[in-house]
Amino acid sequence: MMSSKTRSLSMLLAIAALLMSACTTPANAAGASEAPVHAQRSELAPARTVLSVRTDRHLQVALKTSHDLLDGNDPPTSRADVVACGPAVEALVAERMPPELATQIERLTERGSRVVACGLSLHQFQVDADQLHPRVTVVDNAFIEIFRLQRQGFLSIEL
C-alpha cells in the first residue's frame, strides 16, 4: 500500500508529465522526428520549475520533489523553486522548524534554487520575516512572483 507522501509525489510527477506533454509542438506531434522520446527529452534545455504550496505538509512534499527533479533526468531540471503562501509560511519559522526541513532548505538553496515566502501571507499570519530560516527569500506577493517566473519560462504547479 502506498503512503500518502508517495501518492502525493506520484500525483505531482504525473501532473508534471501531463503538463510537459501538453507543450508538444504540432511538428513534433505529427512525427517530424523519429528519435526515441528519451533521446528527444535529453536534448531539451533543462526545465526550471516552481512549486507553489499552501500547507506545511505540501511544503515537505514540494521540497522533496524539487530535490528529486534536480537529481533526475526526466525531465532534466536546472532549478526547482518552492513558493510558500498561506499557512505554509508558518512552517518556515526557523525556531520551530524540524532539522530535516532546515536541511532540505539549505541543500536546495545550495543547488541554486530558492525557497520563497509570500509577504502578504507573512503579514496575514503575523510572522516576522526575521523569524524565517535565513535561506528563505521573501517576496511581496507570491502570485506576482509565480507570474514573473512563468514569463521567464518556468513550469509551475500549485499544490
List keywords for this structure.
single chain; 159 residues; Hypothetical Protein Ychn, Chain: A; five-stranded parallel beta sheet; 5 strands; 47% helix; globular; DsrEFH-like; signal; Sulfur reduction protein DsrE
Describe the structure.
The chain is an alpha/beta fold and 159 residues long. The protein has one domain (4-158): DsrEFH-like (Hypothetical Protein Ychn, Chain: A), CATH 3.40.1260.10. It is built from 7 helices and 5 strands; from the N terminus they run αααβαβαβαβαβ. It has a 5-stranded parallel β-sheet with strand order 4-3-2-1-5, with helices on both faces. The radius of gyration is 17 Å and the shape is globular. Residues 4-39 have low confidence and may be disordered. It comes from Lujinxingia sediminis. Keywords: Signal. Residues 1-29 form the signal peptide.
- Strand element count: 5
CATH topology-level fold name? Hypothetical Protein Ychn, Chain: A
CATH C-level category: Alpha Beta
Strand line-up in the sheet with most strands: 4-3-2-1-5
The radius of gyration computed from the alpha-carbon positions, rounded to a whole number of angstroms, is 17 Å
Shape: globular
Percent helix, as a range, is 40-55%
Whole-number total of structural domains = 1
Mean pLDDT: 82
Stretches where pLDDT is under 50 for at least 5 consecutive residues are 4-39
Distance between the termini: 23 Å
Structural class: alpha/beta
The SSE order reads HHHEHEHEHEHE
Strand content: 15-25%
Quaternary? single chain
Organism: Lujinxingia sediminis
Protein name: Sulfur reduction protein DsrE
Keywords: Signal
Signal peptide: 1-29
